[in-house]
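Bit of a strange request maybe. I'm writing a small parser for structure token strings and I need a real example to test against, not something I typed by hand. Could someone generate the tokens for this chain?
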Amino acid sequence: MTDKKQKDVLQNNDNEESIYLKKIGERLKFFRKKAGYTNYEYFAYDHNISRPQYGKYEAGANIQLNTLIKILKAMNVSLEEFFIGFNEL
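Reply from user aminoacidic:
Good idea to test on real output. This should exercise your parser:
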């Protein structure tokens, strides 16, 4: 593979990852609001999650799976429910 093709593949992967992270952030925001929290800071505070970091997750920052599971448990949302229709967003 040429350097240009390799660079294009890596850039495409980064763009795809960024899109998925944004979708995860949008889903977190949706389920937070569904749980009755209009402000992410109140949700994070009530569930002992770093407020600045949680705000970054909703904005599309990289999130570890164990952190996502912890947040979803606080929202009473299963992984299955969280990812239903995920590719359709």
